[in-house]
Design goal:
Helix content is 38%, strand content 22%. It has 454 residues and is of the alpha+beta class. The protein has 3 domains: 1-115 and 170-187 and 387-454, P-loop containing nucleotide triphosphate hydrolases (Rossmann fold, 3-Layer(aba) Sandwich); 117-169, no CATH class; 220-331, no CATH class. The protein is elongated and about 85 Å long.
Length: 454
């Protein structure tokens, strides 16, 4: 994987020049600065480039946007006037996006992305609702965008969502192999400031046929976790069937992996019993199904030791299928139960998240406070929805959080990065989130704050 080592944007909003070195060693980079200086916009630009959402770059004023990689290569994005440079640019169609790639020997390649022309808008309006979740048609050429409560015209929709409308075809050259390879070398995951609501997958039939309702993210993620557990249990069952079919043959032919005596056998049985208990506590396995503990006080003859040796090795293989998921659940339970006062979180393969109060009564997920929902959603997304070796872009993790929770945030984040193996670039206004880790920070400043003296 080719990691990002530096992000540079020049003349952002016609004012700011920002350079952000990425802290690969510690896996966490924090950008901070006053409102309006471009923190969220920079995260949006990184996400848009790696997820091919180019329309955002037409709406943001900037001169150049550059990504440097660990292997010394660079990717530079800039705007160029389309046609004669003497034409005064009145519309976004006056610009092309030009991507320039420089390898370690400074040789360059270029790729030009042309905008979609508004003059060619001619397609059934129903396609918009079908292809863009969250838009509800409220007039002949107007839509309500559920995430922001904005009313958008057809021009606004095309400007903002053209990358999500396959019917629109830019007048541009095919994407070159070198660019596809760069984008494919790194997965970028953006966790935005609005994270309490998410789109339901099931369409609800109303006056216009393609309405995607918003649902609380805690309920959606609880359902997702049930599906994750069930999928892993399906893998577990398939492996179990395979091992059971070959058990007799492996029993009579096994020469390796046999335990030498009863003491070694009991050590392995005890470890297995502890692992099964851990998986039960994580909600991955049903409780009380293991009887391995009953074998700990028995002395076995050599033939039975051989049988149990094969059996134990089979169980270890089966449990390994569940191990990664259980590790993530363990960490989620540890973080949430250490933070939420007077509530206890449990997880089951049937119900996903469950909460009980100090009186042992169940607490519905939607009754959690906004701060509790923010924490649960954020940590769930980091643990379960981000691929290993990704770059995570995280905006304002401090939202709705008590100061003590803000101060604990980075230590929890470090545990997650160690387990899941990704890098994080986060933007914050909160010195409490930074707490005692100013060594991880990059301050974004205005031109009046940058000294010209060396």
């Amino acid at each position: 994987m080719n990691k990002i080592t530096k992000v540079t944007v020049r003349n952002l909003f016609g004012i700011f020049n920002h350079q952000i070195p990425i802290n690969i060693k510690d896996h966490i980079t924090i950008i901070h600065g006053p409102n309006g200086i471009g923190k969220t916009v920079i995260l949006t630009m990184i996400n848009s480039l790696f997820n091919r959402k180019y329309s955002i770059f037409y709406r943001i004023p900037f001169a150049s946007f550059e990504i440097e990689f660990e292997d010394g290569t660079r990717l530079n994005l800039k705007k160029e006037l389309a046609g004669s440079s003497r034409e005064r640019p009145q519309r976004r169609e006056s610009y092309n996006l030009v991507l320039e790639y420089y390898n370690s020997s400074s040789k360059s390649c270029a790729y030009t992305i042309k905008p979609f022309s508004r003059e060619k808008i001619a397609f059934p309006m129903s396609i918009i609702e079908r292809e863009i979740p969250g838009l509800e048609r409220i007039g002949p050429t107007s839509w309500l965008f559920a995430q922001t409560d904005e009313i958008l015209s057809i021009e606004d929709v095309i400007d903002r969502f053209q990358d999500d409308l396959p019917i629109l075809r830019r007048e541009t050259e095919p994407e070159p192999d070198w660019f596809a390879e760069i984008l494919g070398s790194l997965s970028v995951h953006f966790i935005e400031a609005q994270r309490l609501l998410t789109l339901a997958k099931t369409r609800r039939i109303r006056e216009y046929p393609f309405d995607f309702p918003m649902v609380p993210a805690v309920k959606k993620y609880s359902e997702d976790l049930v599906k994750l557990i069930q999928a892993k249990l399906s893998d577990y069952a398939n492996l179990s069937q395979s091992l059971d079919r070959s058990f007799p043959l492996r029993l009579v032919t096994a020469t390796a992996g046999r335990y030498s005596d009863n003491e070694e056998l009991r050590d392995e049985l005890e470890k297995l019993e502890q692992e099964i208990t851990r998986l039960e506590e994580a909600g991955v396995l049903d409780k009380g199904q293991s009887d391995l503990g009953q074998l700990l006080k028995i002395n076995f003859d050599p033939d039975k030791i051989q049988v149990l040796s094969v059996y134990i090795n089979d169980v270890k293989q089966k449990l390994k299928v569940l191990n990664d998921l259980a590790n993530k659940i363990d960490l989620l339970l540890k973080i949430i139960n250490a933070r939420f006062l007077y509530k206890k979180m449990t997880i089951s393969k049937k119900d996903g998240f469950s909460f009980t109060g100090s009186n042992d009564k169940e607490i519905p997920l939607e009754n959690l406070s906004s701060g509790e929902q923010h924490e649960l959603v954020l940590f769930y997304e980091l643990l379960f929805k981000v691929d290993q070796n990704s770059l995570v872009l995280l905006d304002e993790p401090e939202l709705s959080l008590h100061i003590v929770w803000q101060q604990q945030f980075l230590s929890d984040l470090e545990e997650i990065t160690k387990l899941s193996g990704f890098d994080i670039l986060l933007a914050t206004h909160s010195p409490q989130v930074i707490y005692d880790r100013w060594d991880l920070t990059v301050e974004l400043m205005g031109p009046e704050d940058v000294s010209t003296c060396k």
